[in-house]
């Protein structure tokens, strides 16, 4: 299995506040959809509950401490280990948040697909963990300047474990 973290984070590693994203970046959404469609996606319960409905064409694996939590059509587990075990072992699997799940999984990940959002350090209550340059190598970076649909400059980064 290739375990990949996928996120959009500000320069201060901010991900979101009050279970909401802090920006609207359509090309980041497109990239997320393109990369994760057809795959298993692992997330915390709060991240799952931030969606209006399950994301189409993906298998949702939800981590929660709530023993009786149910989500129709989704796999519900109580730990990161159980989430990883519930996924196919011969495919790429994506961790999509939130901050606590990223923190638990970064040392087990093989790859990070990060949208780095520049020129903003918003107030947040969820953060992406620091990427240690001793453990990770920036393999690809594609800059995306701000435009009429994107309020911020950003870069699509692919990090690989050294």
UniProtKB/TrEMBL annotation:
Family annotation (PROSITE patterns): DHFR_2 (PS51330)
The DHFR domain, residue ranges: 2-161
Signal peptide (residue range): none
Biochemical pathway: Cofactor biosynthesis; tetrahydrofolate biosynthesis; 5,6,7,8-tetrahydrofolate from 7,8-dihydrofolate: step 1/1
Reactions accelerated catalytically: (6S)-5,6,7,8-tetrahydrofolate + NADP(+) = 7,8-dihydrofolate + NADPH + H(+)
Entry-linked InterPro entries: DHFR (IPR012259), DHFR-like_dom_sf (IPR024072), DHFR_dom (IPR001796)
Protein name as catalogued: Dihydrofolate reductase
Phylogenetic lineage: Bacteria, Pseudomonadati, Bacteroidota, Flavobacteriia, Flavobacteriales
């Amino acid at each position: 299995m290739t375990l990949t973290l996928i996120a959009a984070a500000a320069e201060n590693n901010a991900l979101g506040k009050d279970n909401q994203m802090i920006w609207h970046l359509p090309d980041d959404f497109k990239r997320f959809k393109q990369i994760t469609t057809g795959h298993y996606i692992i997330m915390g319960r709060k991240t799952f509950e931030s969606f209006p409905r399950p994301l189409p064409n993906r298998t949702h694996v939800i981590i929660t401490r709530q023993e009786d939590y149910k989500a129709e059509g989704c796999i519900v587990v109580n730990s990161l280990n159980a989430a990883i075990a519930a996924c196919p072992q011969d495919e790429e699997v994506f961790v999509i948040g939130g901050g606590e799940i990223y923190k638990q999984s970064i040392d087990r990940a093989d790859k990070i697909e990060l949208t780095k959002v520049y020129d903003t350090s918003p107030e947040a209550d969820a953060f992406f963990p620091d990427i240690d340059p001793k453990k990770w190598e920036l393999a690809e970076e594609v800059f995306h300047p701000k435009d009429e649909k994107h309020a911020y400059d950003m870069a699509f980064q692919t990090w690989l474990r050294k």
